[in-house]
Amino acid sequence: MIWAWSGFLLFVALVLALDLGVFNKKSHAPTLREAMLFTAGTVVMAILFAVFIYFAYNRHWLGLGNVIDAVDGQPNSGRLAAVKFLTGYVVELSLSMDNVFVIALIFEHLRVPLKYQHRVLFWGILGALVLRGTMIGVGAQLVARYHWLLLVFGAFLIFTGVRMLFQSTQEKEEEVESWVTRWLRRHFPVTDHFHEHHFLVELNGRRFLTPLAVALVLVETTDLIFAVDSIPAIFAITADPFIVFTSNVFAILCLRSLYFGLAGLIQKFRYLKVSLALVLAIVGVKMLAADWITAWFGDNANFWLLGVIFLVLIGGGVASWLADRRQRPGGR
C-alpha cells in the first residue's frame, strides 16, 4: 500500500514540477485557451486514473482493494472502486466551484495582478494537499472506528446545504478576509505594494510579507473552510483513504485551471448556489439513509448518486443559461 501512496505523490510532484518549471516558468496571465487545455488535461488524467483504479483494485496491485470499506462494509472491487473515485471526483469538483468565486473576490479585493495569480494558486495547491491529506487521514480513521459519525456528517451536510441558500458567497469571503487580514497585520509587518512575484521581501534589514503572501494565506484559509463542507461529503461514498485523497487531489488540480476559465463567467451561473446546496443535501440524505439506499440499489448506489449529481449540476447550468437569455434584449 505504501508504494501506491508513494507513486501517486510522485506523480503529483511531477505534474506540479512540469507546470511551474516548464509551462509557467515565467509569470504571465494564462489565456482562456491555456486554462481550458490544462483543465481538459486534468480531466483526462482523472479518467485514466479511474481506469488504473479499476485494474489495481480488481487485481489487488500494490495492496489496493484488500481493506473493508467502512461505509458499505465490503472490500472495493475494481468496478466499485472506479465508480466511487469518479463520484468523489465529481462531488469534490462541484463543491469547489463556489471556491472559485471566493478566490476571484480575494484577488479582486487585493488587486492581485493577473500574471501573479497563477503563482498564488500553485503554492495554494501544495498547502491544500497537506491540509486535506491530514483531514482525510483523521476522518477515515474516525469513520472506520465510529461508524455513527456518518450520521453526524449527513446531518451536517444537510444543514450546510440549507445555510448555503441563505448566505451569500461574498459575505463568507468578506468575513474570512476580515479576520485573517487583521490577524496577519497584527502579528507580521506587511508591505502596501506588490514586489513582483515575491511573498517575502527585505526592507531596511527587516522582513515583510507582501500582499501576495496575504492573498496566499487567504486562499489557503478559504480552502480549509470549504474542505470542512466537502470532505465529509465524500465519506458518504467511501472511507477508503486512497480513493478519498486521490479524488480530492484531481479535483484541486482541475479547480486551479478552471479558475482562469470560469472566474469571469461564474457570476452568470445564478443557480450555481442552489445546485451546490442540492448536491450537499443529496449527499447528506445518502449518508442518513445509506442502509436503505444500499438495500434498494445494491452496488449501483454510487453509480445512481453520480447520475443524480450530474443531473442537478446540468439542470442548474441550463436554468442559469435560460434565465440569462431571457434578460437579454429581445430574449436572445
Description:
The protein is mostly helical. The protein has twelve helices and four strands; from the N terminus they run ααββαααααββααααα. The protein has helices at residues 2-23, 32-59, 78-95, 97-110, 114-145, 149-166, 169-187, 211-234, 241-262, 272-288, 290-297, 301-327, and strands at residues 68-69, 74-75, 200-203, 206-209. The strands form two sheets. Strands 1-2 form a two-stranded antiparallel sheet. Strands 3-4 form a two-stranded antiparallel sheet. The longest helix is centred in the middle third of the chain and has 32 residues, at 114-145. It is globular, with a radius of gyration of 21 Å.
- Regarding quaternary structure, what we see is single chain
Percent helix among the residues?
over 70%
Largest sheet: 2 strands, antiparallel
Separate helix tally:
12
Mean pLDDT value: 84
Which structural category fits the helices and strands?
mainly alpha
In whole angstroms, the N-to-C terminal distance is 55 Å
What share of residues are in beta strands?
A: under 5%
> What coarse outline follows from CA principal-axis ratios?
globular
The neighbouring-strand order within the major sheet is 1-2
Give the H and E element order.
Answer: HHEEHHHHHEEHHHHH
How many whole angstroms does the radius of gyration measure? 21 Å
* Count of individual beta strands: 4
Number of domains: 1
Low-confidence stretches: none
